[in-house]
Amino acid sequence: MRTRAGLPSPERLIGTAAHDFTTAFLSGKEIVLSSASRRDGAPAVPARWLVRLDALLEGRGQTVPLHPALTWQAALDQPDGAAHPVPPPEPRPPVALRPRRLSVTEIDAWLRDPYAIYARHVLKLKALPALEEAADRSDIGVVVHDGLDLWLKQGQKGGRALHDCLLTMLEARELRPALSAWWRPRVLRIADWVCEREALREKPALLKTEQKGTLTLTPPYAPFRLTARADRIEIGQDGRATIIDYKTGSLPRVSDVEAGWSSQLVLEAAMLRLGGFADLPAAETASLLYWRLTGDRHRGEELSVPRKPEDLEALIDSALDRLRRRVEIFDDPHTAYRSHPHPDYVPRYSDYALLARVSEWSTAREEGGE
Predict the structure, then answer these.
(1) I want to staple 224 with a disulfide (CB 3.0 to 4.6 A). Which of 127, 203, 217, 270 is the partner?
(2) Given this model, what pLDDT does residue 137 score?
């Protein structure tokens, strides 16, 4: 068809381009050949003529020398002279600069990684998004939270309405088509699981979602404010509350909740007891529930903490006592914001691990047997 139209063949155009490239290639005194190892976040395949060139040279016992640019990035991280063990950072900022307000989710970070609180609230540092960062479960977390919130505020009008709410929020995120297609059946399975759970639960007397709360503690020094944004709080017919938290990722371990390492819901229950939520009356909490909403073959999962419901009141009391003691400890100017002070309870992820040089001193600690 191209011949009949009087057009040159594709091979002729390729040959002409190759001829021009080779002419320019051979005229240079020094030529640097570069090939991207990744393209659009996926492994890239080098041009065939580069592969053939490597094969030709290998057959003749020759190779193209590597350019030193490949070592420049690695050299940036190499210390000058002999390397010395790096101790963990222990900043002790003045008490006046230390945060007087934290959220319930940051309390867990304060326990597991105080340095992260120092970097975020004292140094005012915020991690930049990673290069070529792809959409992940954080986007789906927003979709699920906003979709359920919209559905509950509309009055729980059945499974079809929940489907529509979740799909509306999914479209609003404007995800890549492939990712949106991946999550679409999953959010529908999440909707089905939620509707099944709702059918088994008693209708509450009062239901509030995305509730903001504040609790002010009065330690010996300046007041300390604890804030929260509860996914869902229900007040039952008996006046007792159920607090539900939605998770699209992993759930905390029950043992960590009971030991105080994952205290988000427990502290929200303490705030509710003391009237910390403006739109809700002060109430005791009957149960704390985590709903893990994944949309996979299991669709969803419910986790109740603590193991024995009768232990909840004591758990709330101990959580408040621990928080008050921690505020008092960090009101001491000699208390340092250490990084990962408890090796058995390190956070799953930290934006400030690189700043704290965790990989350097933690390796030295392991080799030293500390």
Answers:
(1) 217
(2) 61
Check whether 284 has a pLDDT greater than 90: yes
The C-alpha atoms of residue 3 and residue 247 are separated, in whole angstroms, by 62
Model confidence over 289-308: pLDDT tens digits?
999 999 988 899 999 999 99
| 263 within 8 A of 319, measured Cβ to Cβ | yes
* Range(s) of the chain covered by CATH 3.90.320: 95-127+203-330
In this prediction, residue 52 carries a pLDDT of 86
Residue 86's alpha-carbon distances to 82, 90, 123, 306, in angstroms, are 12, 12, 21, 40
Strand segments (E) across the chain: 38-39, 42-43, 101-103, 206-217, 224-235, 241-247, 285-293, 300-305
Into which CATH architecture does domain 95-127+203-330 fall? Alpha-Beta Complex (3.90)
Antiparallel, parallel or unpaired: β 42-43 and 241-247:
unpaired
263 burial via Cβ count (<10 Å: 0-12, 13-18, 19+): buried
